[in-house]
Amino acid sequence: MDVMEELRPLLLSIAYRMLGTFGDAEDVVQEAYLRLHREPEVTSPKSFLTTVTTRLAIDQLRSARRRREQYFGPWLPEPAVDEYVDLADRAALSDSLSTAFLVVLERLSPDQRAVFLLGDVFGYSYDDLAAILGKTPANCRQLAVRARRRIADNRPRFDPSPRERDELLRRFVAAAEDGDLEALVALLTPDATFTGDGGGKGGFPRPIHGALNIARLVIGSFGKFTAADSAGLRELGRLTVEVVHVGGLPALRMLDRTDRTIAIWSFTIADSQVSTIHGVVNPDKLTHLQP
């Protein structure tokens, strides 16, 4: 395989985690390759491409944040569904792709985000970070400390075990299927939050709070399931719901009769209850999951 193609997954992994959108990540990586072709004297393509990708992503994130101030309703990253998008270079990196974690990263400045991702997720040293960002190692260390502090204050806890999380989600779907409000409320923390991103094309203009409010919303969205096939897919009229994973965490993928993805609901589960649901229904953010 050509060295450029070998580096593409790494570069896309960095760019997506920085930006939260696949189209922008692809554009950044493509621009990095174009710049490499204009620099024939480069001795280390990996260092060059990582540096350019990171700096372009920082610039892109700064302008994107200004645009997001005019976004209708909550903004969420495009969901990186594990079964359909391979950006986790190894299992240990998977949770850095979860919607809940990427939402926390939105609280960081672009420079803090870059330092944290490259250092704590991808394992770059402070000397490497200094070269990539054009700062001193001491500056990078300060950025990392601030980033870790902010993340520690807001990072969701991902427990219990993956098998227990998937089982809880199956119980969640069963309760929603049956319209069992009491069972659904019991599976949610009292202060649970549902945040929906529709971009003005669906979803909700603000987050929904409280177990009872969310349970009613979920039952209203699901209604009564009328059939279930042997693969575990449940159908409601023209809707199919499939259990998937986003950054290793359980999620629901909802499809219409033409197998087009119409929603991804990502779940954060702690202490055997659902604490957060991030629902992406904006069709512009689901194009990477379509047939």
Describe the structure in your own words.
With 291 residues, this protein is an alpha+beta fold. It is 47% helix and 17% strand. The protein has ten helices and eight strands. It has helices at 3-19, 22-37, 45-68, 99-105, 110-121, 126-133, 137-154, 162-178, 181-186, 211-222, and strands at 188-197, 208-209, 227-228, 234-236, 239-246, 249-255, 261-270, 273-280. An eight-stranded mixed sheet has the order 2-1-8-7-6-5-4-3. Strand 6 (249-255) and strand 7 (261-270) form a beta hairpin. Helix 1 packs across helix 2, helix 1 (3-19) runs parallel beside helix 3 and helix 6 (126-133) crosses helix 7. It starts with a helix and ends in an 11-residue tail after the last strand.
Total helices: the number is: 10
Structural class: alpha+beta
End-to-end distance, in Å? 27 Å
Largest sheet: 8 strands, mixed
Secondary-structure element order, N to C: HHHHHHHHHEEHEEEEEE
What percentage of residues falls in helices of 4 or more residues?
Answer: 40-55%
Mean pLDDT: 88
Instruction: Walk across the major sheet and give the strand order.
Output: 2-1-8-7-6-5-4-3
Kindly estimate the percentage of residues that lie in beta strands according to DSSP: 15-25%
**What is the count of β-strands?**
8
Query: Could you list the spans in which at least 5 consecutive residues all have pLDDT below 50?
Result: 224-231
Overall spatial form: globular
Question: What's this entry about, in short?
Answer:
The chain is of the alpha+beta class. The protein is built from ten helices and eight strands.
